[in-house]
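To close the chapter, one final illustration. This time we ask the reader to focus less on the individual chains and more on the assembly as a whole: which components sit near each other, and how the overall shape emerges from the parts.
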Amino acid sequence: MAASDVPQRIYHFGGGTADGDHTLKALLGGKGANLGAMARLGLPVPPGFTIATPLCLQYHAEGALAPGLMDDVRVSIGRIEELTGKTFGAGPDPLLVSVRSGAAISMPGMMDTVLNLGMNPAVSAALGALAGDRFAKDAERRFIQMFGNVVDGIEGRRFEEVLETVKHERGASEDTDLDAAGLDDVVTRYRTVYRAATGRDFPDAPWEQLERAVEAVFASWENPRARTYRRLNRIGDDLGTAVTVQAMVFGNLGDDCGTGVGFTRDPSTGAKLFYGEYLANAQGEDVVAGIRTPLPIRAARAGAMKLAGRSLEELHPHIHAELMRVAATLEAHYGDVQDLEFTFERDTLYLLQTRTAKRTGQAWLMTQVALVDEGVIEPNTALARIPADSLAQVLAPSLDASAASSPPLARGLNAGPGAATGMIAFTADDAERRAQLGQAVILVRDDTTPEDIHGMHAARGILTARGGLTSHAAVVARGMGKPCIVGCGALHINAHEERLTIEGAGVTLGPGDTITIDGSTGAMMLGEQAIATSEVLQVLVDRTLAPRESPTSQAFARVMEWADAARTMGVRTNADTPADAAVARSLGAEGIGLCRTEHMFFDADRIFAMRRMILAETEDERKAALAAIEPMQVNDFKGLFRVMRGMTVTIRTLDPPLHEFLPHDESDIAELARHTRRSVDAVRARVHALRESNPMLGHRGCRLGLHFPEITRMQARAIIRAALDVALEGVDVHPEIMIPLVGNRRELDLQKREVSGEIEALFKAAGRRVPVQIGTMIEIPRAALTAAEIAEHADFFSFGTNDLTQMTLGVSRDDSGAFLPDYVAKGIYKVDPFVSIDQTGVGRLMRIAVEEGRGRRPELKVGICGEHGGDPESVRFCYGLGLDYVSCSPYRVPVARLAAAQAALED
Amino acid sequence: MAASDVPQRIYHFGGGTADGDHTLKALLGGKGANLGAMARLGLPVPPGFTIATPLCLQYHAEGALAPGLMDDVRVSIGRIEELTGKTFGAGPDPLLVSVRSGAAISMPGMMDTVLNLGMNPAVSAALGALAGDRFAKDAERRFIQMFGNVVDGIEGRRFEEVLETVKHERGASEDTDLDAAGLDDVVTRYRTVYRAATGRDFPDAPWEQLERAVEAVFASWENPRARTYRRLNRIGDDLGTAVTVQAMVFGNLGDDCGTGVGFTRDPSTGAKLFYGEYLANAQGEDVVAGIRTPLPIRAARAGAMKLAGRSLEELHPHIHAELMRVAATLEAHYGDVQDLEFTFERDTLYLLQTRTAKRTGQAWLMTQVALVDEGVIEPNTALARIPADSLAQVLAPSLDASAASSPPLARGLNAGPGAATGMIAFTADDAERRAQLGQAVILVRDDTTPEDIHGMHAARGILTARGGLTSHAAVVARGMGKPCIVGCGALHINAHEERLTIEGAGVTLGPGDTITIDGSTGAMMLGEQAIATSEVLQVLVDRTLAPRESPTSQAFARVMEWADAARTMGVRTNADTPADAAVARSLGAEGIGLCRTEHMFFDADRIFAMRRMILAETEDERKAALAAIEPMQVNDFKGLFRVMRGMTVTIRTLDPPLHEFLPHDESDIAELARHTRRSVDAVRARVHALRESNPMLGHRGCRLGLHFPEITRMQARAIIRAALDVALEGVDVHPEIMIPLVGNRRELDLQKREVSGEIEALFKAAGRRVPVQIGTMIEIPRAALTAAEIAEHADFFSFGTNDLTQMTLGVSRDDSGAFLPDYVAKGIYKVDPFVSIDQTGVGRLMRIAVEEGRGRRPELKVGICGEHGGDPESVRFCYGLGLDYVSCSPYRVPVARLAAAQAALED
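The assembled structure is written out below.
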């Protein structure tokens, strides 16, 4: 949009009116728009104006400010002068202004700000006469430092060094110890620094200062850190920033002045209590800098903090009352909790900023439910606002605030939310053994494999040195709802010698040491820390707390109820055991979208039968081994069907390469040889023969089922036997049999033939039937590309987006740690494609599969069971594709329910 | 097509006329159509008729013969009776008929035939009176055996056992030793076998015999071996077979009778000489059975074989003359070499079949060029006929016919055409060492890796126990033009102890033993065998033979000339060295489509610099190591540019995972540690750290270039420096720089920025430029799916169909041996997708990439450099997509030129 198309280039606010309000964020940036809104609400806002974003784009397109813009700015400054009765660049009562950036989407700290602009020696003198020399000189030195840094790019360090030198020379330990003379000395030396750095004298002409500051703010839109931030946060480069110029007010003119920040409700708990802090006789940047400890706003809180009498409420009751009135007005206007900044100058309150507050998951639930109850918003508005991911936080165990502030020993990727504390276990067996003895353990490994499942179950949390957010450890941990950190590169693990060294920390730990991990942040700490179980889980899953004892769980239940009413897409879960299924069901799962049968084979009593089957040299031998497994599988499925009564249970036939089931260390190989009456060499040779260069693309999935149809047949029999049995108990069963890794219609045809044959034989023998469907995963690009053909024999499709992403992008999840983080940092992928679906590439294949699959078979049911099924952005994308359901790990089910509701509401 | 839509259900032939001819193959099958054609040409064909293929489809659709069909058949038999003067099912001169299948596309031996039908005791007696009892009884027992087997499914073994018993009882060692009484005994016992097997008496009613035989032939279209054959040969299931019923003639009525087969020209050399053999007093099946040794047709050949006086020409000059007349007529009619079957009964010649002859590559060239010179066909007709793959055979070294008949010790996949003989070398180093001493060696490995390249170069041929047709060994061997067998599962190789055991053969070999491999057939033989180098290579590449000394090379040159005139698509080569490039150029390559730079790093003097670079811990260290490599690369490229003067040379930047360059055994690791002044532990740790779960999808291709931009920059500099240098020598250079493994436009953007920066700097420093283009491989599904975006910054695309196939199908080429052969056998993929492009899946992505890439950038150049570039079917597909060129290994260039011409001619 060229500037000439903009109806207005400059928008004024202040004096009880404004040209724009919060609806014009795109034009005025969040800051400018909200200042306009506050002015229109009659709230005390220092007057000012905002130069609209199109002028920023024009500046970058033309390399110069729009013609005539500064003439308009002069007129607008004149308006501020009128409203304040002050004069820009001159005494007796000089007007100083702030010049700030502000984009439509908040980019905190990414762009530049200049305060106290309009300052020069004459103005400083006038200001000294009015408010004291120390104040004037302090304002002057702050301005020179900020302008030099922001506008001329002089390193802040060079000013800081001067300040330190002067303090040292004058025996001052704090900035505030410097008197007016000392600060005057600083100002003089700052001017020298400026001249040395730029070769020019510091510009004392106020209009030159203003023009250059406006240019600098526009220019900062394209600085490298802003560009990076936009890329990481998927913010368009074509939005531009607005510039807001506003009369300065001062919180540091004396004890009747001050500055603070606050939330209209508690952003941590959501309680309806103003929450904030302030500093008397201070500027806003002092609060941020943390030099002095701020004081509470409310008297009650001051009491609780043993600071009775020092709250804003007690010391400045008039300002406090005004602030409470403003808070109420703002909440009523915005209909949501606000995060605001204020300053009071000589007992007059000014609002400098307001924005919708960030908050914890719990606070999101509590505030939105309260706002609905207060009649401020509708339930659907609440639903649309709550970040779906925040529900994961509500379900995770959490660290005490005090523990969270312990310095981390190392950091990794936050792979499974929640915190856990326990002693280090270096092997799955050790974890299991010690857990049985009642110890809390954290399993610490380079990475995990399916052989570690029992140890992961036994451990309180999992910590790995390698792997990404969708590594085995991460996926399984999330599925189990366990806190997990992966890819913690600083760990050097010697499992054999049970020794963990942490690079950089100079610490070596052993199995007797206790650590704490926070899977929500990726931080690993030394020692035991207090951990709190999620209240919602205590109510819904553990049933150790009654709903009435937990307002959070009540709010959770109500939000989920609204979400279920709003959404149209189903939410299932990925669960392999009755226990997992029960958790998921209590969290609202409407079926099982993926039951991985292979996990069932890793139990100690089964792995042997599995290995015997793999080593079998004849079909008869293989059948005998399978016959031993079959009754166990029947029991597995009966358990699942009972828990999921009335709901669909989708069971995937055997998927992983056989190599994963075989032992890899010599003693296990020897034991297997003994048990199967084979030579150690023969077993070792078989293990070796099954090793693959790229197992992900190897002999697995339906390729196994085609090679060993007796495995598929056994599994089909076990599913149907279990279904027939529990149906006799009166359980309503809906099994679905899902064939993995199909890339060619004939693979499905052939596997379906095997499955159907067994099913019909069992139905005939039983003299009754149960409803059953047969479908396939869509996880190979070719399957998506030939979906029409495949749909002819499929009752349903389920997108396996983990594998589909690996193959479509040519990226091995397990190996991507070497380059994918860098790729995301470089903006090659805006987000880890294993976390959120790559909509351009993988998404295109999904769209082809849905459209062409349903084109051939309109009644085709389509879902997703990859990890992405629990990612809100991906859930939204799946809704857009018209999927029937998403399926995710049990603890992500509430997230998916909310995300599905949001997608439906957006539609 | 329903039978009612067919203008005619039965087509007659014989008596100098016919209802149909060779243009009606779809309706009459090859056999019936050609019999019609021969009848129309006035050639002596026993009269008969053909029931058209739609009746077969109707039979399968309705489960019964079409209503009234047998009435029509009776009328048609009547017509044969008229023409022959014989009576069906009755004396005194009974008519016997053959009932044969015949599909539009030849399916040799796949379907069934019944001879001597119309036989029963009365007919046998009449026949005995006419031609002797022995003949009659022999015909009768043959009929019962064949009818019982084909129509009633009685195992042939059961009849053979009876025959053997009778022979034993009567002291007869051969069938021919049995007299009429003995054969009568056989007939009686055959009838008992029939009754025992079917529970019914043998049907003596001729019309019943005929009806059941027609049904059996129709039914045989759907027998399992026919279905499998069709799937393997991509023949549609909806063609159906025709049934041809024809009067029997007998070559076994006495010494004035006989039967034979012949080619109108030599199918081995292509010489214009009738080539064939015959047996006097014998039936056709006796020739096939090989009980008696057939004699030559021509007198000259009989002389050469020390069988003077026994040829057909000498013993039956009248028949021979007639046969030569027939051969000339058929060649003139069909315009190509014919393969025909004949019988002479009482000095009268009958033609029973003619079809276009199968022949060797050399014969294809020689016959087609001769036919053009004779004015029989146009060059474009010759081009369309020569199977493109047959040229690979012409270029390969070949075994002597005698050696080819040695029994193979083991069989593997025919991965690189040609034969080689030499002593076994178990390691690449040993192969190189012994080759330098002048020994001929065959490299025998479980599989090969890039570290084995020097040994593969040194060896005469390569034999591996593992891998498929596109394994490393296969690809590299074909590139080098070396004979190669892969996936020879019977080999058990203990390289450490230098021992090769061959399963099933009970043979153990060592480095002193000589073996011979025939990479054209996959057979491995013991001992040395004579090997002949291709004449064409001797002329074109080795220049050890003048063109005038080799008619084959002259024919080759002319066919290539015609092909180049006919084709529109370019043919380049994949070559990494000047030597390979020179070979390819002499075989007609028009540029290099893929130069893999990594092979350059495996030379002994470079691998160390490469390893030093990989171990580098700082950018400076890495740059120093690269600086050592750069001048070597400059030299490599100069050599290539000189050989390929005037042509485009596409150079791919570093592609394989770094792990491939590192040493894997302890002594090499120790040596590297010593040379780089690092601890062995540190080097081992680095080797371990670079190991990947799925290296194919790991840190490779442009992912390396993005991680270590200095590698890409070094390679770009080396390419441009070399180009500038040789341009000064007056060489016309056209380098193209190709970025591998791009899946996202930004990867190409970033790599292109690095490359362009170096290029421009060098051009500026040199004060001159060379033409250069920058493009990318399309080898990741996502690249194809986002081709429009990627095309914005690409001058060209080159399909890497090896990787694209791996990822699109989710199949690791290296691991596919465990299931892909079975997949092809089951018809899941009609052909190995690594041999011929999977047009449905991979092809769809290619189409998307071409259409959308050119949609965005119309001048985009598109080629293919995967192994498929040398596969005729894939070349045809690429032509259809509108590619600008295909690129293949040097020895496949002629194949690709011909295939490209054929594609253009078909268009």
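Residues 619-643 of chain A form the longest helix (25 residues). Chain A touches chain B through 48 residues (CB under 8 Å). With these observations in hand, you are ready for the problems at the end of the chapter.
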